[in-house]
Design a protein that fits this description.
Elements (H helix, E strand, L loop, with lengths): L1 E6 L6 E2 L1 H14 L7 H7 L4 H11 L6 H15 L7 E2 L3 H10 L3 E5 L4 H10 L8 E3 L12 H10 L1 E8 L2 H10 L3 E4 L15 E3 L5 H8 L2
Parallel strand pairs: 1-4, 1-6, 4-5, 6-7, 7-8
Antiparallel strand pairs: 2-3
Helix pairs in contact: 1-4, 3-4
This protein binds 2-phosphoglycolic acid (PGA) and magnesium ion.
Pathway: Organic acid metabolism; glycolate biosynthesis; glycolate from 2-phosphoglycolate: step 1/1
Protein name: Phosphoglycolate phosphatase
Pfam families: Hydrolase
Length: 218
């Protein structure tokens, strides 16, 4: 059976918050709302687009407006596909993907970002060739922290021994519910202290990841 590493995307492999921030503020301006700070935007990321838009509306005093919410979700998804130019790969992440592949690991992706913008930003950054399986926030009827998307990624890879790598509380809960070890990247968009998040290992430097995966799966 294949050994595999499944990655979260936003805040884990890529710092995409600047693009998400720009898209959100385009939307806010279009609808006459005040812009968000980068910190506001980062705090809304991690649970997918519907949740992101709910956070935007709550912050602007319109939490119960279902029609506006549906409209903003559709417009945001429209903006999302080309929101790639401000996004950067975290230092050492691309090298870690190569090292893991060279060590024989299959690689998969399980993100709450919708699958079309996820594939678009992966291609823009030259990372798409690493991932035979990409599960996005709209791939199934449920999204993380439900374990089903992560389990679908694992099944798609045909893997048994798997580590999930992510940056957020949502990712830690997803891995726990899927019964998989979790490696926490500490430089992403988590909302609280590392100590409050269940994890097998935490790392701040991608150079450490291949060794961590080997140890966790030993
Ligand atoms: O779209 C989001 O809210 C977050 O995406 P992620 O699951 O890749 O962190
Ligand atoms: Mg993330």
């Amino acid at each position: 059976m294949t050994r595999a590493v499944v990655f979260d995307l936003d805040g884990t492999l890529i710092d995409s918050a600047p693009d998400i921030h720009a898209a959100a503020n385009t939307l806010m301006a279009r609808h006459g709302f005040a812009p968000f700070t980068p910190e506001d935007t980062r705090s809304f990321i991690g649970s997918g687009v519907p949740h992101f838009i709910s956070c935007c509306l709550r912050a602007r005093g319109r939490p119960g407006d279902a029609a506006l919410r549906a409209q903003l979700i559709a417009e945001f998804i429209d903006l999302y596909e080309t929101a790639v130019t401000l996004t950067r790969v975290y230092p050492g992440a691309a090298e870690a993907l190569h090292a893991l592949e060279n060590a024989g690991f299959a690689l998969g992706l399980c993100t709450n970002k919708p699958v079309t913008p996820a594939r678009s930003v992966l291609a823009h950054l030259g990372l798409d060739g690493h991932f035979p399986v990409v599960i996005g926030g709209d791939s199934l009827t449920v999204r993380k922290p439900d374990p089903a998307p992560l389990q679908a990624a694992v099944a798609g890879l045909g893997a048994r021994d798997v580590v999930y790598v992510g940056d957020s509380e949502v990712d830690a809960e997803t891995a726990a519910r899927a019964g998989l070890p979790f490696a926490l990247y500490t430089q992403g968009y988590r909302k609280g202290p590392v100590a409050d998040m269940p994890h097998a290992r935490a790392f701040a430097d991608f150079a450490d990841l291949p060794g961590i995966v080997a140890t966790v799966l030993a």
